[in-house]
Write a structure and sequence with these properties.
Chain lengths: 282, 316
């Protein structure tokens, strides 16, 4: 903490000595780092604080209250959008996690094989292409399918989400697999366990933390998506973030602060669990 | 059968068994990879071909396309067609939007580097046991909703926002300074959105910094600045390139940030593309703009991959 307090214009002599002896110290770096953290969290903190403000204005603080949360819960639009968001996120998480787990099993702990790099590239493709490009390409493709088959429904949106959730689910599962040695599996095979049994009794139980982490990331990413959903979603398929965007365009209301805080809280909860889970593993 | 023949036979059987096993492994591998690859290939990659085709068609009256081949979308990008006599006049309005996007993404990248480098260094010089926690603190906002973070930024930089109220409160300014709906707002929003992308690769290269080199430099009477410039920055160079590209790419294709903070006046490529598929109903032009954006991004990615290949041979 001594380094932080050296922000004052004239550092105390002993602090000068301390920083002169510290190899790692660089002038101003600590201050900028703290500024960054402030910059990252201050807007979120203001949003959260004002969601509890008992006042229509989103400027002046009057009193603590839950009234905007109550208003948000009573709002039909918000309730419907939440329902759609949950449906899409659950379906997309389910399929993307299964597909990512299978792909991770095929791309780790093997000797290099032809096409492995290509497989990586394809799995990570949704991360590399700008979201707006993916969004309009998907919209064009889906509108073509709709024209030809006449099929409509929320399935399209779920499919689009599954595609971009796969690489996020894949990352932690692959990382987990790479940490696992093949020793236990080899021992089981030596004891005449058939491949399926080896997988079910050994690989899968060991892999569970990775799968849980992958599913959590996929869920958060699906829940947070705006651009692809905005373009692909049909009428009546408004998700919560798309609903929020529409409201913000119309003007700022404290109700939106409350919903945003809830959505923010959900993501933070999931990612924190993900972090703690990973920490306990080590 | 003599003994040599028996050995040959055994060899052949072993080879057969190995081949069978290899084929089984290949089949299992193929079956495991199939769902992910097929779904991403068909619904993630193939639609880009559709975009390419659409960019070469004529716009339909109510959105969508008319199946008539036309290069109009690309012509429109550079020229303005007179509605009366159909003559073409060179027009820079779309080029300006592209230019602004590239400029804003570039400036935001530099801003993120200036903020991100000391932050990554700060984390890398913490005791190893604490580093993961610090990384978590920096990356946590990234995992929260981008729209909501941008909205939170909007709340702060408005005329009646926290920044202006405190400036007026302290007495530095009398009237609120307008930040919202300017390029500055978009710039701040872009840094805010993508700062973690800068910090992570920088941290990855700074973490490996061997402080014995720094010590040696100080023993040879180097100043702090010389140590930074001649030792720390060269070692962090792969991280700097990676971080810059990782901020530049999403910054270039940003949609939400200019939409909310630029107020629809300060367009970037992302908004231009969105408008063509929304209210303006010119899908071919939107497709063409999307492909041009994709091309720029792919070039940046190639630089990134070549850089990563040089920095860590054997890893991608």
């Amino acid at each position: 903490m001594a380094e932080i307090s050296s922000t004052s214009a004239v550092p105390a002599p002993e602090e000068n000595v301390r920083s002169a002896l510290n190899l790692r110290w660089q002038p101003g770096f600590n201050q900028i780092a703290w500024m960054c953290i402030f910059f990252l969290y201050a807007p979120i903190a203001v949003l959260i604080a004002f969601s509890f403000n008992d006042n229509r204005s989103v400027v002046v603080w009057t009193d603590f209250s839950f009234r905007w949360y109550e208003a948000a819960f009573d709002n039909r639009g918000i309730r419907n959008a939440t329902l759609v968001s949950m449906q899409v996120a659950v379906v997309a998480t389910f399929f993307s996690t299964i597909f990512a787990t299978m792909a991770a099993l095929a791309t780790t702990r093997t000797e290099q094989y032809r096409g492995q790099v290509l497989a990586y590239a394809i799995i990570n493709q949704p991360l590399m292409i700008p979201e707006i490009v993916t969004a309009v390409a998907t919209l064009s493709f889906f509108s073509l399918i709709k024209q030809v088959t006449g099929l409509t429904g929320i399935g399209y949106l779920m499919l689009a989400h599954t595609v971009f959730c796969i690489p996020f689910a894949y990352m932690p599962i692959r990382a987990r697999l790479e940490d696992m040695t093949l020793t236990l599996e080899q021992a089981a095979t030596d004891l005449y366990a058939p491949p399926w049994q080896v997988f079910r009794r050994i690989t899968l139980p060991l892999l569970v933390p990775g799968v849980v982490a992958g599913a959590m990331l996929a869920f958060v990413v699906s829940l947070d998506d705006v651009i692809i959903t905005l373009l692909v979603a049909g009428p009546g398929e408004t998700t919560l973030p798309v609903y929020i965007l529409g409201q913000i365009r119309r003007g700022i209301t404290p109700e939106i602060n409350a919903v945003s805080t809830l959505l923010l809280g959900l993501s933070i909860l999931f990612v924190t669990l993900f972090f703690l889970y990973g920490k306990r593993r080590k | 059968m003599d003994s040599a023949g028996l050995l040959d036979d055994a060899d052949r059987r072993l080879a057969d068994a190995q081949r069978l096993r290899a084929r089984q492994t290949n089949r299992t591998r193929g079956l495991l990879l199939a769902p992910a690859l097929v779904i991403i290939g068909v619904f993630g990659l193939f639609p880009l071909t559709i975009t390419l085709i659409y960019s070469l068609l004529e716009p339909g009256a109510y959105g969508g396309v008319k199946w008539v081949l036309s290069g109009e979308a690309y012509v429109q990008f550079l020229f303005n067609r007179d509605i009366f006599d159909g003559t073409l006049r060179f027009s820079t309005s779309y080029l300006q939007i592209f230019g602004r996007s590239i400029g804003l993404a570039f400036v935001a990248t530099i801003g993120a580097l200036i903020l991100g480098f000391p932050t990554a260094y700060f984390i890398a010089t913490k005791p190893p046991a604490q580093r993961n926690l610090w990384l978590f603190i920096i990356t946590l906002p990234f995992w929260t909703n981008l729209l909501i973070r941008t909205y939170a930024m909007l709340l702060i930089i408005r005329d009646e926002g926290l920044i202006n109220l405190s400036l007026i409160g302290i007495g530095i300014v009398e009237k609120p300074i307008s930040i919202l709906y300017t390029d500055t707002a978009v710039f701040l929003g872009l840094i805010y959105s993508y700062l973690p992308f800068m910090v992570l690769p920088l941290y990855a290269s700074l973490e490996k910094l061997d402080f014995r080199l720094v010590e040696a430099a100080y023993d040879l009477y180097a100043t702090r600045w010389q140590v930074l410039r001649r030792i720390i920055i060269p070692i962090a160079k792969p991280g700097i390139v990676a971080g810059c590209i990782l901020v530049f790419i999403p910054g270039l294709g940003a949609f939400i940030t200019p939409e909310l903070l630029g107020g629809g006046k300060k367009l970037m490529i992302g908004n231009l593309i969105y408008l063509q598929f929304g209210t303006l109903r010119n899908w071919p032009f939107g497709s063409a703009a999307a492909l041009i954006l994709l091309t720029v991004v792919m070039i940046a990615l190639l630089i990134y991959i070549r850089n990563a290949g040089k920095a860590a041979p054997g890893h991608g």
